[in-house]
Amino acid sequence: MTKIATIGCGLIGQGWATVFAQAGFDVAMYDASAEAAERALETMASRISDLVEFELVTAADAPRILQRITVAPSLEDALNDAVYIQESGPERLDVKREITQMLDAIAAPDVPIGSSTSGISASRYCKEIAGRHRCLVVHPINPPHLIPAVEIVPTPWTDPDIVSKVNALMIECRRETIVLSEEIDGFVVNRLQGALLEEAFKLVGSGIVSAADLDKAISDGLGLRWSFMGPMQTIHLNAPEGVAQYVERYGEMYRSFGVGPSDSVDWKDVANEKLGPEFEERIPTSDIPDAQAARDRKLMALLRHKAQTRSETPPVSPVTQE
Amino acid sequence: MTKIATIGCGLIGQGWATVFAQAGFDVAMYDASAEAAERALETMASRISDLVEFELVTAADAPRILQRITVAPSLEDALNDAVYIQESGPERLDVKREITQMLDAIAAPDVPIGSSTSGISASRYCKEIAGRHRCLVVHPINPPHLIPAVEIVPTPWTDPDIVSKVNALMIECRRETIVLSEEIDGFVVNRLQGALLEEAFKLVGSGIVSAADLDKAISDGLGLRWSFMGPMQTIHLNAPEGVAQYVERYGEMYRSFGVGPSDSVDWKDVANEKLGPEFEERIPTSDIPDAQAARDRKLMALLRHKAQTRSETPPVSPVTQE
Question: Which positions fall inside the 3-hydroxyacyl-CoA dehydrogenase NAD binding domain (chains A, B) (predicted)?
Answer without folding.
Answer: 3-181
